[in-house]
Amino acid sequence: MPTAAASAREILVRLHDVMASRTPAQAKLNQVVGIIGEETDSEVCSVYLLREGVLELFATRGLAQEAVHVTKLALGEGLVGTIAERGEVLNLDEAASHPDFRYMPETGEERFHSFAGVPIIRRERVVGVLAVQHAEQRRYADVEIEALLTVAMVLSELIANAGLIDTGAVTDRPQSTAAVRIPGQKLVEGMASGAAVFHQPRIVVEHTVAEDTDAERHRVYAAFDKMREQIDRIAREAEFGVGGEHIEVIETYKMFAYDEGWARRINEAIDSGLTAEAAIERVQQRTRQRMRQIDDPLLADRMHDLEDLANRLLRIVSGQMGTAAQLGLRQDTILIARNLGPAELLEYDRRRLKGVILEEGSLTAHVTIVARAMGVPVLGRVRDVRRLIAEGDQLLLDVAEANVFVRPSAAMEEAFDAKLVLRQKRKAAFAALRDVPPETKDGHRVTLMINAGLRDDVGALDITGADGIGLFRTEFQFLVSATLPQRERQQRLYREVLETAGDRPVVFRTIDIGGDKALPYLKLEGGTEENPAMGWRALRLSLERDGLMKVQARALLEAGAGRTLNVMFPMVSEAWEFDEAKALFEAQRDWLSSRGKRAPNEVRYGAMLEVPALAEQLDLLLPAVDFLSIGTNDLTQFLFAADRANPKLAERYDWLSSSILRFLRRVAAAAREQGVPVAVCGEMGGRPLEALALIGIGIDRLSITPAAVGPVKAMIRSLDRAAVTAALDTLLEKPPRDMRGALEGWAAANGIELA
Ligand code: PEP
Ligand code: MG
After folding, report:
1. Which stretch of 95-104, 108-117, 202-211, 478-487 has the lowest confidence by average pLDDT?
2. 180-419 belongs to which homologous superfamily?
3. Diameter over CA atoms, the chain
4. What pLDDT, on a 0 to 100 scale, did the predictor assign at position 379?
5. What pLDDT does residue 108 have?
6. Ligand 1 atom with the shortest distance to the CA of 633
7. Domain residue spans in the chain?
8. pLDDT of 652 over the 80 cut
9. In a mutational test of the pocket of ligand 1, which residue from 364, 450, 572 has the highest number of ligand atoms less than 8 Å from its CB?
10. What sign has the CA pseudo-torsion 8, 10, 14, 19?
């Protein structure tokens, strides 16, 4: 028996000549069915192509010629329609006994018993079916099916180049073209419409038949080497959580990257005469078909990883390595990615990036925080995107409803637009609150500040009317930069921020690098960390490698010359760490004054409380600090032992849990007793109901994402502080299991405005 490669190669050699000839497309197809029929020794060989949603018999050897362009089948109709609809192979010794068999008298096919058909796939979408038939009852051998699949790959190129199918059908489009709604998890609120763009564009295989098989083999060897190198490097660098990829994923990647079976199948496909790209795609198509028949969610996840890797291999082999950011966005875009690092997101053109869809993602991952700061809505945990969305598809993103509409119908668009108008009205109403103070009904003034991290964010101060910047994440500058920002560059940014803020305070947080904030250009020793969020990050790193922090201290002190400078340290775990960090700044300050250089009039030092242990050292810490800021993003992940970036845990614990509220109430009370101002600067404070609870436990300083200022201010102005304090006292005395439900009930009963 010939090998699959050998039988396919003979066909491909002959097809190559047909493809290269100058005959019209229909004549080429006629020749093709002749060649395949002869080479596979089949009595019938037919090609059906999808036109306007219908499968049309385009060429046949063996069936009645009168049936050509006459016989038509809907998707799902008959054996051919079934293959096209499911993208599956059928191999039957008695076609008529298959439940989907449909007899078509005009073809004269009643003589033929056996039937084998494979889908013709272009850019992951079925565009036609290639079928062979025999009079005798026989099952086709695996090698024959494999050969048919290889031929179908080549046919897809011929068909697309000849324009035999609708151009719409050959765009990068998945199986269905109908409108669909895909659910996800709300990460950053908002609505947006735009075209789907994949962060890592899918490669379209343009040439399928190889000119030089040896050369193709070498190309694929080299690509495998490079891909393995990349995966090994990612695994090594996982200490900084490159791209948010998790260890488990990387392990699976490694397993696939080194899988000999995969490499061998690709090589066999090359031996059959395909180009390296076509061989990779061909093997992937077959794997997809096989996996589709196995209904196992775990395997589906693995398939996802393999798809990613196959695409990586294709990108390497074709030399098309850029992300969509590097290629540039050409229109309003909704970006789709498995996951993104904050730096990757920041590479996109902010004017055109309207929304993001992540297959993973979690509420407090830094990419989410960056997107929130950019005002870009994000929907996370969206499943099956590659199958349901194609590059260029029109998308409507409605995060409030936790939905994305793909290829929306006119009715969907209308409903979306109507909602958008309402939303804009609400936004305008919030904007009208810009100059009114965030004051409760019983006259208590809350301090509402914003979180920022980039130069452009500072403009939000004027737009929102916020009281200042309660958290300036200085590491963002490091994340967006291709190289380590030098002191002058840092200083320039800090000065610009201070100038824009005028007399409103800005709290600069020293760099919090590590965890999910990786710096590609900064390689730090320490080996691979299994838990980077609990690892060598933020102040821990800054105190040990103090060169970075000294430079930053100088830049901040110089930028703050003649003003009050507020500095805050992240991830303080014990009081002495704060003391050391402050001493480092003070030493720089002394150095400046010893040189007669201008320094700030006053430097106020604060600590972030985001490691629970610090709460047990408040007696040591509070006398030393000028202010305290609670980072609830990290604090809750440590209190609950639940990774803030792990999508599986994203909805498990609630910020309104009594553990968190009691913890925060205790810290706030201790700080108040010592006269130390305490703020909350985590994402929690930007949600109106959570902000209500925070005010109820005695916190009256919030630093939140700019978009939340309006809604939170509206909530505050509808709130009676004495009443909410009493309500929380009662609720925390004997906490209900559903604290969120209880607070929602209280808010509704008390006429609280919750956006
Ligand atoms: C936090 O942890 O709550 C916080 C504000 O800091 P970041 O999100 O940058 O870690
Ligand atoms: Mg933090």
Report:
1. 478-487
2. PtsI, HPr-binding domain (1.10.274.10)
3. 102
4. 96
5. 85
6. 3
7. 4-169, 180-419, 438-522+531-706
8. no
9. 364
10. positive
